[in-house]
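Work Package 3 committed the consortium to producing structural models of liganded targets before the mid-term review. Because experimental data for this complex are still outstanding, the team generated a predictive model from sequence and the ligand definition alone, so that downstream docking and mutagenesis planning could proceed in parallel. The input record is reproduced below exactly as it was submitted to the modelling pipeline, together with the SMILES string for zinc ion.
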Amino acid sequence: MQFIPFSPLIDIGFWSQLSRNKIEIYKLDDAERSLLVKTKINPYPEKTSQLYLDIYSFQDDITINKSGPFEVYSKISFQNYNTIEAYQEFDHLDYAQKAFQKMIESFSKDEKPNLFPARMSIFADLKKYLFYFKLIVPQLQIENIQNVLQKNLTDYLGEQNQKFQQQLSLIIQQQQNEVCNNSFVIVNKESFQFVPFKEYQQNKQEVIFIYFDSFNQSQLNSQFNNFIAYLITNNSFKEYINNIKIIVIKDALTINKNQFQLKNSIYIELNLSESKIIQQNGQYKAFNIEGYLQEKKIDLKSFMDEQSLAKEAVDLNIKLMKWRLLPELDLEKVQAQKVLLIGAGTLGCQLARNLIGWGIRKITFVDYGRISYSNPVRQSLYDFEDSTKGGRPKAEVAAEKLKKIFPDIDSEGYQLQIPMPGHFVTESQVQSTLDSFLKLSELVSTHDAVFLLTDSRESRWLPTVLSNAYGKMCFSVALGFDSFLIIRHGISLKKYNPEIHGERLACYFCNDISSPGNSMKDRTLDQQCTVTRPGLSFLASAYSSELFVSLVHSPLLDGTPASDNPEQLQQTDLGILPHFLRGQLSDFDIRLFYGRAFKNCVACSQQILDAMEKNPQSFLLETLNRPDVLQDISGITEELTLNKQEIHEIQDIDGDDDCSVLQIIS
Ligand SMILES: [Zn+2]
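The resulting structure, written out as tokens with the ligand in place, is given here.
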């Protein structure tokens, strides 16, 4: 008798499910687990008997009720190692010996013998999409099997063909959805009716074994050896051992005209009275063990398109943080954030890059400017080409470049002039100003977080008001020459509840007692541009993205209280949640600050919110043409008259650039 080894036929779905399990479930746990594998008759001539692994191999049970070809399911053990060294160290020969021993011991008692004690060892190099594996299917070798008789099955059955077919059909229905780890059943010799093992033991009757082979040629699959070992070891079969009758099904059992095609199937009678399990030097001799020990390598890169590879790789990089360092990281929550960046300059470009590093998938840019010759060296999403021929619009290019870096991102850019207090609107500009206002309102309302990254104070005013009106998280990031400031704005008054949120935190404008005005008037060139040390925007954007991700981890989000005592600051798994951060490059210092919301704030007070909601368009146009109106509405004018004495020390900072805010705070 000749035998043919098993060889794995692994679907790509298996590897991608393994990757997902490794990242999301197993992580660093490399315990031994089980895999569900199947064998079935392949109608095409092959050199091996195939063992199928696919996406369903990770399930515990067969959940899909299959009809058609007969499939035999087995549970095998598998181990997915953390390191290639641990994977290589596993002693497969030793495993095979132990498996043989366990299998033979079980033969004398087990009703359902496990003839398939296979094991798969895997090392998955997920960064490179390389999978190394060894599959070992321990099969014994038997000597002295005497083949007494062999016939084509249909010849043997003759007139009993119909009866056999009916019973076979019933057996398949019964056995189809069981995990058997063996591929034989016992039937009555005359009726072909299924005989449970216990019934056979109690009432010894003449039986035939039906063995479902997974190989359609004349050789048998190698599991047949273990089957023979079972027959000669289990005492129940002793009285028939010199004439064991076996029907070997070797056809893919599809029913055609209510008949199984059985042209390759055979009937054999074996005399096993002299048969023995082969041993050498006290070790069981394994069939084809060399073949199973061969390491196989799968390179999945060639099967995946580059875009999904990039997506998987980015996800993996982030998820790795969860394994050891931050198991509490809520990546789904972070990645679901839709972020609106007002300003696509040094800060906007770099912040966007940090956010995609965190896996954020929705980033929208708003910027009115075009890319100038000086921009590409500092603004990390642009190159020289973008600055030529008058320069391309920043917002649009920034969105385009993000997609080039990471195609899976949903990124858009809008070239939009933000209406600003003190930037007078002429009659002819009214419509376009209102259009911009409506677009900006829509953008704020459809995002979760707004970052104010522009280089003038007045351009931050309307987005601050809108964030407050729509209840969105809002951050201001501002740069001086060698200092930066990051503020997370206090929660919107629409959501604010003092009992939950404590004292409401200040916004970017809460420290001001004047309205933002046109800061570009009467400025020299160096005053008009933000002149900063080149490393500053990278530092500031890095701190702001990390503050944002920390805040997302706080259940109260932007309603998370703060304190002027750093030890009393709220904590998430990522650390403390300060209110202001002020960094100073000259002494490499970062300090934390805290400020309460100002009840007469020109941007975030109830009065401004009410005015905006009552008649947004006329409130806006009035503010743009006469910024002082903000002081009147917010109640500052009144406060000033009442408390002139108290606040005269605070300087009017109207017209100053971002650094003025720093001075006020310090
Ligand atoms: Zn405010």
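Reviewers should note the following from the model. The CA atoms of residues 355 and 545 lie 6 Å apart. These observations will guide the Year 2 experiments.
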